[in-house]
Amino acid sequence: MDWEDVQFTRFDPSESQLGLTSNAGAAEVTGIEADIAWLATDNLTLTGALTLLDAKLTEDFVQSLSTPTSQPDAPSGTRLPFIPEYKAYVNARYEFKVRSYDAFVNGNVSMVGSSYNDLFIAARQEQAGYELVNLTAGIGRDNWELRLLLRNLTDKRAELYRNAADFDSRITTNMPRSIGVSFSQKF
Predict the structure, then answer these.
(1) Which segment of 35-39, 44-48, 49-53, 121-125 scores lowest on mean pLDDT?
(2) Which is more confidently placed, 66 or 178?
(3) CA 107, CA 114: separation in Å to the nearest integer?
(4) What is d(CA 96, CA 143) in angstroms, rounded to the nearest whole number?
(5) For the ranges 17-31, 79-93, 114-128, 136-150, which has the lowest average pLDDT?
(6) Cys-Cys link to 6, which of 24, 30, 68, 76 (CB 3.0-4.6 A)?
(7) What tens digit of pLDDT does each residue of 29-41 get?
C-alpha cells in the first residue's frame, strides 16, 4: 500500500497536555496476511493466522518546517510506530461428550513482534515482542455452559505501550496470569 498524507499522534507534555497530530508525509506498507481453518477430525478444529508487514516512511519527516535542520526527525526508511513486523495466532479446539454433556478444551498462542513507540528517531524506544498462551475448558448442555479460563498461562508481561513522553517512563502491560470461572445461560 502506498500511503500518502500519513498522520500520527504524539503525546509530549513539554509541548501540550493533549495529543498533537502531525502530518508525516508518505509511507509504504508491504506485506502478506493469511489465515487457515482446518477441521482435522470430527472433534478437532485447528485455526491460525499470520501477518507479515514492512511499514516505513518513503520520505524524510521534519517536524518543523519553520526551523530547518540538517537532520530529519525521521528519515525515509524509518519503521512506522506501533506496527510490528509480524503477528501470528494458532488455536486448537477439541470437542467431546461427557455422558450427556457437551465438553471442550481450547488452547491458543498469540505472537507479536517488536515495534517502536514513536516516529521520532531521537525519542523512540523499542517495545519488545511477546507470546501469550491461553487455555479454556468447558462443559454444558442445552442452554447453559460452565467454563474454566486460564489466561496468560506463562504469566508474561507484554509491553503493549511504552510511554516515554512524560517525565517518567511508563509501560502499559497486559493482565498477569488469571484464572476464572464463567457461567452462561441462554433464555
Answers:
(1) 121-125
(2) 178
(3) 23
(4) 17
(5) 17-31
(6) 24
(7) 999 999 999 999 9
Look at the block and give the residue holding cell 465438553.
103
Neighbours of 46 (CB within 10 A): 15
pTM of the entire structure? 0.83
* Residue 69: pLDDT over 70: no
* Residue 82 and residue 117 in contact, taking contact as beta carbons nearer than 8 Å: yes
Long-range pairs of 12-15 with CB within 8 A, sequence gap ≥ 24: 12/165, 13/165, 13/166, 13/167
CA dihedral 109, 158, 155, 89 (to 10 degrees): 0
In angstroms, rounded to a whole number, what is the distance separating the alpha carbons of residues 52 and 86? 5
Contact 102, 139 (CB under 8 A): yes
Grid cell 506485506 is found at: 31
> What pairs with residue 20 in β-bridges?
10
